[in-house]
Amino acid sequence: MVVQSLKTNSKIEIIYLDSSNKFSQRIIRPVKLKENIVVAYCYSRRQIRTFHIDNIMSAAPLQGRNRVS
Question: pTM of the predicted model, to two decimals?
Answer without folding.
Answer: 0.85
